[in-house]
Amino acid sequence: MALKARALYNFQSENKEEISIQENEELVIFSENSLDGWLQGQNSRGETGLFPASYVEILRSRSGSNYTDYSSSPAGSPGHDSFYTAPPNPGIPYQGSFEDDDDDDWDDWDDACTVVEEPRSAPGTNGHPSPSLQYPAAYGHHQHAGYHPKPALERQDSMSSSKRGSVVGRNLNRFSCFVRSGVEAFILGDVPLMSKIAEVYCIEMGSKGPQWRANPHPFICSVEDPTKQTKFKGIKSYISYKLTPSNINSPVYRRYKHFDWLYNRLLHKFTVISVPHLPEKQATGRFEEDFIEKRKRRLILWMDHMTSHPVLSQYEGFQHFLCCRDEKQWKLGKRRAEKDEMVGASFLLTIQIPTEHQDLQDVEDRVDAFKAFSKKMDDSVLQLTNVASELVRKHVGGFRKEFQKLGNAFQAISHSFHMDPPYSSDALNNAISHTGKTYETVGEMFAEQPKNDLFLMLDTLSLYQGLLSNFPDIIHLQKGAFAKVKESQRMSDEGRMDQEEADGIRKRCRVVGFALQAEMNHFHERRVADFKRMMQSYLKQQIVFYQRVSQQLEKTLRMYDNL
């Protein structure tokens, strides 16, 4: 029975099975039973297809409940606390039963083990496993009254191009991630010190402020040769990728599920670091060549950001992911990473900061400036994503079609000139006919060109949408720390807190402040390098493209010289 529903957020379709919906649009739902978090229905334009269940509310009669919350349903967010609602996550589309999901289990070595084994209440941020902020507005960056925290230990996909922005705006969190992540406990000195902290991450003062100390053993890692493989006598299929770290130059083979596991460990551990999002899943066509190539390109960018980060690149779990080839050692390393105690707020205990004094008000002003910058950059990245996506559609569709029309029109002229043989000029007719074919060729060149330039641009923009979306939570942690410092100083002035205790809170706030500034510094450093490379690559490919078009036209022009 069809039901009416209202769209809570914008959603832009990327596959033929999906449809786009707009905020406040009235929809028709064919069935309120969601499948893996997706519903099937019809939008106001008569288009039928899939869209995220958590993006809509069912409209019911006054006698019934006001709406259906899919986020707490088994398909939306299994096993989570009742007051949590799963966020809209269009990066994880519907998984059809007709296509075996390559992410159902851990891997070929350890199929009995699942990823979600640790307690769901463990501290963390960056969207997980603490209740992090989600801002799903794709176009207008609307603020919503409802808070949708991230389900514990569920992958947060990369921001799909043109789907949504990160929106660095005011905090709408009912259950403050500052409290839930454990950072408040750290600031108040309630996080127990470990007897022995094996890992240490140092922050030092650079020319532009605090920065992470560089990895003493830098390396890069290639991602190559996506290969379809099978197991269980062909019942299950998946894609494996060949990874070759430069520091050992010995390849390992990893499935997307392995990346997924590593990503969850990173989010679980690194409280104040913007972990790059993984490429999104897709509802259907996981083994189609275009999708596999797109995922490979984006995994390459993801890996470049991982290996370039001074902290993430040294993480033991990441090194294990890149280097381990032995089955037994793999399982041991996996368990060790999952039992790591230095996660969430405890990770802050591993950070060593400089002795240089920083005025907290100056730090707060610096954070506010970065917050404003992040918001503006997010808006502009989303704008460019939408423009580039539309240009891709025009290249593949509109431009090719128009050039084909022009080519057909030229050939029609050539055919008409053959109608009166005594006055027919074969040389002219052939030249005009060839001109028509040339423009058809140019149309095909336009259709193929996005693979050479616009795809890399969209890949880079998608990565930065994900990176930017992490900063609201991280900035919120710092804001909470600032508030605790001001509160403790006021209580000290009123005689309700020892000055020594207030000084301890200020000292621990400095750790969070230095870490955030170091992360901001690294973000800017990578941003300059990435956008330089993106723009240079785009312009070079554009030049080559128009040179090829020019060569085609010049060759055709010479056919008219000796008529």
TrEMBL record:
SMART domains in the record: PX, SH3
Region Disordered: start-end pairs: 66-104, 117-165
Membrane association type: Peripheral membrane protein
Keyword Zinc: no
Biased composition range(s): Polar residues: 66-75, 123-133
UniProt-recorded Gene Ontology molecular function terms: phosphatidylinositol binding
InterPro entries cross-referenced by the UniProt entry: AH/BAR_dom_sf, PX_dom, PX_dom_sf, SH3-like_dom_sf, SH3_domain, SNX33_BAR, Snx9_fam, Sorting_nexin_WASP-bd-dom
Family matches, as CDD domains: BAR_SNX33 (cd07669), SH3_SNX33 (cd11896)
Location in or out of the cell: Cytoplasmic vesicle membrane
Any one GO BP annotation for this protein: plasma membrane tubulation
SH3 domain mapped to chain residues: 1-61
Major location (coarse): membrane
A GO cellular component entry from the record: cytoplasmic vesicle membrane
Key words, A-Z: Cell cycle, Cell division, Cytoplasmic vesicle, Endocytosis, Membrane, Mitosis, Protein transport, SH3 domain, Transport
Domain PX, first and last residues per copy: 219-329
Sites where the protein binds a 1,2-diacyl-sn-glycero-3-phospho-(1D-myo-inositol-4,5-bisphosphate): 255, 257, 295
Keyword Cell cycle on entry: yes
PANTHER family: SORTING NEXIN, SORTING NEXIN-33
Family: Belongs to the sorting nexin family.
Official protein name in the record: Sorting nexin
Organism: Falco tinnunculus
